Amino acid sequence: MSITKTLFRVGPPTAVAGLLLLAGCASEPPRDLLAQAELAIQNAERAGTSQYEPGLLSNARAKLNRANKKVDEDENDEARRMAEEAIADANLANAKAEAAKETNQADEMKKAIEALKQESSRESEER
Amino acid sequence: MRPQILSLKGSSVVLLSGLVMACTPAANMSLERARNDYQQAASDPAVKNNAYADLSAAEKLLQRAETSWNEDEDSEETDHLAYLASRKVDLARATASRVEAKKTFDELSSQKDQVRLQAREAEIRKLKAKKVPQGILVTLGDVLFDTGRANLKAGNLQNMYPLVEYLRNHPDTRVKIEGHTDDRGSADYNANLSQMRAEAVMNLLIANGIAPERITAQGMGEDYPVATNATASGRQQNRRVEVTITDMPGTQPPAASGSGM
Prior knowledge:
The complex is a heterodimer of chains A (127) and B (261).
Chain A: H1 2-9, H2 11-26, H3 31-46, H4 49-52, H5 54-72, H6 76-126
Helix pairs in contact in A: 3-5, 3-6, 5-6
Chain B: H1 2-23, H2 29-42, H3 45-50, H4 52-72, H5 75-127, E1 130-132, E2 135-140, H6 161-169, E3 174-180, H7 187-207, E4 215-219, H8 232-238, E5 240-246
Parallel strand pairs in B: 3-4
Antiparallel strand pairs in B: 1-2, 2-5, 3-5
Helix pairs in contact in B: 2-4, 2-5, 4-5
């Protein structure tokens, strides 16, 4: 079993890797981040994001769910990453929805002005 | 011993694959993408000017991703940080477009006020109306009536159309109609004539669809001349019907303010 020997020879690095893995497991569950993610998603929902950015919002929701699952599995590093990404997705959804709303308002205003201009030009033609 | 060997074997495989990756030239797709995203956004003046804070947050995340890659070659954490950086760049773009849209909106808003004002001025010009403290005043000349008569002359009715149209377009206004005469004839006769002329104008408005509760008509007789009664042209100016259009329903008894927006 020469393979077994080789494996034993690379013993110390493996031990280091094992320690790193252990360290990963020992970190605390990212409770604050999970709460922040929940809040960010709720904010985005309240801003009517589901209408403008449904994909991003469900992305964020899925990642938060995954983060909670990873906490249960004691994989807190992955849980942290997922929570951080959920926050990023929710915030982006929010910002995109706000931008879309603002753009809509500007478009509405443009139309209103066109209507006014047409009205007054029609009136002056009638004179 | 066997289970231990097995577990060691597993870890070693992971480790070995890590070593293999380390030997390949350092490249991480998501990091590449984040770099590109950031550089494009950073060279876009609209993003730089309107979303500077988001852009620098993105830069910091990108630097963390670079560090994670250069020092640890931890591809999972690098991917994650690169993802966050790309998202932050997108956020900066969204912020920039929101700010730009807001600017456009504000510019258009003030433009709209101006256009509305111009439209209103055009309307008033068309009505040949004069601005007065209560609203606007349209003076209908004596051409509407034959001397001593109170029925409207059919041939001159087109003078009334702009008024009717204006009142139709502005249903939230009220109309006060006042008849005036020159000083020829007795005061009673003139009071009566001016009342009938004011009512003739009112009836024409009602016949053209203007709600009666918006309108009041009153004969003022000869007591409010706008010119001298000593000359023919002065007397002609004094024979008139004045129509005052007001925006405020409050100037009339609230009970009559039935017509609405």
